[in-house]
Specification:
Blueprint: H1 6-13, H2 25-39, E1 72-85, E2 102-112, H3 114-119, H4 121-124, H5 127-132, H6 139-150, E3 156-162, E4 168-171, E5 180-189, E6 208-217, E7 221-229, E8 242-254
Antiparallel strand pairs: 1-2, 1-8, 2-3, 3-4, 4-5, 5-6, 6-7, 7-8
Helix pairs in contact: 1-2
Length: about 260
Amino acid sequence: MLHIHFKVLIVATTCLSGAFALPGPLRLASTFSEITTELQHITLGNCSLKDVELPINDTKVKLPEPSPHLDLKYVVIGRGTQNYSCNFGESVHHPKKSSTPKATGAVATLFDASCIASQSSSLLHEFPAIMGHTTLGSLAFLAETLALSTKTSNLIIGEHYFNAAGDPFFDLRLSGSDTWIVSKKDASVNAPTRRSQPFGKEGSDVPWLKLDCKDCKGVKEVYRVMTVDGVAPSTCDGQNDAVLVDYAAEYWFYG
C-alpha cells in the first residue's frame, strides 16, 4: 500500500520551474494525490502486456499498426529534452531573430511503466504530463513513487539519445536484458489537442511517431505517443545557440 503525505507533495512542487506557467503548485500536488489514490486500489503483481492496447486512435491521422508478428515488450516513459540549434553564423542576410531552430536530436531517461500499463491505461497516461512538468532534478521523487507502486528498485531501465550518425537510439540494457534499437522514422502525425491544458499550452507537444529498426536487438518497432511539450520556439530570437526544450512521452516497444 502506497501512502504519501500531502505536505510532501507540496514540498515537491517547490522544485518546479516557473517557466511552465502552471496555474498553481497545488495543481501538481492534486494530481499526485489522485494518482497515488488510484494506485492504492489496483494490484500490480501481474505485469503482462498481452492485452494492453496502443493508444493510436487519439490522433486525427492514425499511425500504422504494429506489425502483426510482433508483441509488446516494454512501455516506458521518457523524460528529457528535445534539442535544437540556433547556431547559424548570423549575418545581415540571415539574422538570428528570423531564423528557425534546427532539430538536432533528443536526450531522455527511460522509466519502466509496463506494470502501470498492464493495469490501468488511464493512470499510465497521467504520467507524461506530470513528468514533463517536473524538473529533471525532481524526478527522483517521481521515481520513488513509481518504484513503491511497482515493487521494484530498478525503475530506470534505459536511455534515449541520437547517435553520431543522427539516428534515434534507445538503450534498454539497464532492464537486465540485452535490448536496444537504432531506429528510423516510419510515420509521424500531429499530437492531438489535449482535452485540458493544466500544464503547457496547445500546440506545444511534439508529434507522435512510429519508428522502425535500422539496427536492433530484442525489439523492432517503437512508438512515441502521449507527448508533452518539446516543440521548438518559433524563431531563434533571444535564444542561445543550443536550445533545450523539456518534454516527456510514452514509448512503446515491440519485438
